[in-house]
Write a structure and sequence with these properties.
Elements (H helix, E strand, L loop, with lengths): L1 H64 L2 H14 L4 H16 L2 H13 L5 H15 L7 H11 L7 H14 L3 H12 L6 H15 L1
Helix pairs in contact: 1-2, 1-3, 2-3, 3-4, 4-5, 5-6, 6-7, 7-8, 8-9
């Protein structure tokens, strides 16, 4: 009986294989191809990240040595051809170097490009708005209203950078001579328990200065 059962099972397996063997082989090959492709892509992307990381690091070292133009050139290539997160990092580095160089206007332009790139995450774009505004406020001139408009557009309660944005709006109000608006913003910031300690502290100090 055992031999008969073994033969029956063997015959059933033979029939199943004859009927579905092609599908099984196809599935197995698909799995192999997918796994191989994934591993190849993983290796490729890791290689890209390492290469772009090295470019980013070298550009930073070159900038520290004082060769600003060379550093900007290297970062420009990374920005143009970068395929990983180092592309946007290169833009942040460019803007920071331009700021140190004293070119606040061009630094602000680079930050604005980051902020307007919808492929970047919301947190990244929000940070670019704040850092860009801090550069633009130095040379804002006749573009004050445009900067204020962009900041107000980003000033939402779900923006993690909202407190920094409001602080800058208050500074813009002072710069334009509108102390009442500045006092209103600083008063709100100083009394907001969720605002970062540094911002609340500065708001209180500046509010005291404006009141005096």
């Amino acid at each position: 009986m055992r031999e008969i059962n073994d033969e029956l099972r063997e015959e059933q397996m033979h029939k199943l294989w004859k009927r579905y063997g092609g599908f099984i082989v196809g599935i197995a090959l698909s799995v192999v191809v997918v796994v191989a492709g994934y591993q190849g892509w993983k290796t490729y992307t890791t290689s890209i990240r390492m290469s772009e990381s090295e470019i980013s690091y070298n550009a930073d070292m070159v900038a520290r040595s004082g060769d600003i133009d060379q550093a900007l050139s290297e970062l420009g290539k990374l920005e143009a051809d970068g395929k990983s997160g180092y592309k946007v990092l290169a833009q942040f580095q460019q803007a920071a170097i331009l700021s140190k160089k004293g070119d606040s206007k061009l630094a602000g332009v680079v930050y604005q490009e980051i902020a307007e790139d919808t492929s970047n995450g919301g947190d990244v774009r929000g940070l670019a708005i704040v850092l860009g505004a801090l550069q633009e406020i130095k040379v804002v001139g006749e573009n004050r209203d445009e900067l204020k408009k962009r900041l107000n557009a980003a000033n939402s309660d779900n923006n993690p950078w909202r407190y920094s944005i409001r602080e800058i709006l208050a500074l813009l109000a002072i710069e334009s001579g509108n102390k009442d608006d500045a006092k209103k913003i600083f008063s709100s910031l100083s009394g907001d328990s969720q605002a970062p300690d540094g911002i609340r502290s500065r708001a209180r100090k500046l509010l005291a200065v404006l009141d005096s």
